[in-house]
Amino acid sequence: MDAQTAPERRSVWASIKPYVEKESLVAFLLGLSSGFPYAMIGATLTTRLAQDGIDKKTVTAFTLAFLVYNLKMFWAWIIDGVHLPVLHRLGQRVSWMLVCGAFVIAAVVNLALVDPAADIGATAVAAILVGAAGASFDIVIDAYRIETLKPYQLGVGSGMSQYGWRIGSAGAGALALVVAARFGWSAAYIVCASFALPAMLTALFMGEPERRKVVVEKRGLAEVWTSIAGPFAEFFRRNGAILVLAFILVHKIGDTLANLTFRLLFDDLGFTNDEIALYDVGLGFWAYLIGVFIGGVAYARMGLKHSVMLSLILMGVSNLSFAALAAAGHSNWGMAGAIAFENIASGYGGVVVIAYFSALCDLRFTAAQYALISAGASIVGRFLTGTTAGALIEAMGYVNFYLLTTAAALPGILLFWWMSHTGLVDQAMGSAGEEEPQPEPDVFG
Q1: Positive or negative: CA dihedral 305, 31, 61, 271
Q2: pLDDT above 70: residue 257
Q3: Sequence ranges of the domains in the chain
Q4: Mean pLDDT of 240-255
Q5: How is residue 437 annotated by DSSP?
Q6: Contact, 351 vs 27, CB < 8 A?
Q7: Cα–Cα distance between 32 and 38 in angstroms, integer?
Q8: At what angle do helices 120-148 and 197-206 cross, to 10 degrees?
Q9: Angle at which helices 22-41 and 43-51 pack, to 10 degrees?
Q10: 83: alpha, beta or left, given left = phi > 0 and alpha = psi -120 to 50?
């Protein structure tokens, strides 16, 4: 696989040039819309709840809304095979992009209209609906991206997708903070709902992806069952599939546990909304973009296995910086350093790990298989955050908690090292990562 992803160890310029190809620009626009629902029920909602005086255990319990993302594999087959009335004439991916985008807009507006201080139960339901809408949107966005990108573009395409994701997430988060400070949280959420439009408009303009493969029209009950079971059966027939799934499940436990609690740390250390916007959103945004760029170039030059291994180490070690910040207390320099290191590591890791996960897909089952992979990537960390993070912080303190999240990264590092050295990384690849002849880059689309 390294030979496929980094043929002849391209020059730096050849590694950078694919960033301006039309497929990479499509990935960027898709990422813009993919990132914002996460922000609406992630850091933004955490800040909103904390400012409304909701206790820590309840705030961290809201991360369970993200578990809806981890269940998306159970309905991803619908987006692969069920035709929408009338809209299906636009194409399978395009029609579902429009419907899921509309679902996201409606769910975010609904969350805007609830009052956490008055009805925490209604807020929880609204957050879950945003999670369900965002997960459905992600299914079609991921399938569209993977089927649009060529194998040699997986690294830079994933990088552009992460650029878009971060801009969408950080942009929505920053916009929400600014609007909320002036007009209230309801107005903030309603304004941010517009971030669903880039993916919807891109799909309408570009049409169906060129690499999309249709196996069978889903008509009868037998075909429907095949469409549900087929993606899972194909994946688990591969050599080493169980170990690959184990890696997917454990590799991000520590990173997820840490990331979903940062806003609680900032609030307890006394950082203001303006400081959070400046450092966590502003500085973090640029640091993440730097990490994404480094990740795209590293994937092309180092190959899959080496670049992924480095990302796992960096993401684990980055949690130590927040242990140091917790020990230092309210320090703007400490916050800047911790956020910069964390976001560079996350940006780098996001590119190379997403490229690896994309290459695992069979193009006949893109939506269902990537939903399985991406759902498994964070389910353990999100479940532990929602059920134990608040209690662990109260029992251990922030310093020991972030040391624990660093140690939680070790199983994923060791498992990927073993898979690399036994050849299982290569043996478990899907058709999305298969080598194709590489054309001259289409710079102007």
Answers
A1: positive
A2: yes
A3: 20-433
A4: 83
A5: P
A6: no
A7: 11
A8: 30
A9: 20
A10: beta
The model's pTM is 0.72
Model pLDDT for residues 11-41, shown as the tens digit of each residue: 555 656 667 778 888 999 999 898 888 888 8
> Can you tell me which residue has the tokens 């590489």?
438
Whether CATH 3.40.190.10 fits 20-433:
no
Amino acid at 391: A
Mean pLDDT over each residue of the chain, to the nearest integer: 80
Q: How far is CA 441 from CA 17, 18, 24, in A?
A: 7, 6, 11
Is the CB of residue 268 less than 8 Å from the CB of residue 392?
A: no
d(CA 71, CA 117): 29
For the purposes of burial, counting CB atoms within 10 Å of the CB of 312, is it exposed (0-12), middle (13-18) or buried (19 or more)?
Answer: buried
Task: Give me the pLDDT at residue 105, please.
Answer: 95
Amino acid sitting at position 423: G
pLDDT above 70: residue 266: yes
The DSSP 8-state label assigned to residue 153 in this structure reads: G
Angstrom distance (rounded) from CA 305 to CA 6: 11
Helix runs in 329-389, H state only? 332-359, 366-384
In angstroms, what CA-CA distances link 120 with 123, 236, 423? 5, 41, 50
Torsion sign over Cα 107, 110, 112, 115:
negative
pLDDT for 221 equals: 56
Here the tokens at position 187 are 């107005």
Sign of the Cα torsion 41, 111, 267, 278 reads: positive
Taking the C-alpha atoms of residue 73 and residue 78, their distance in angstroms, rounded to an integer, is: 10
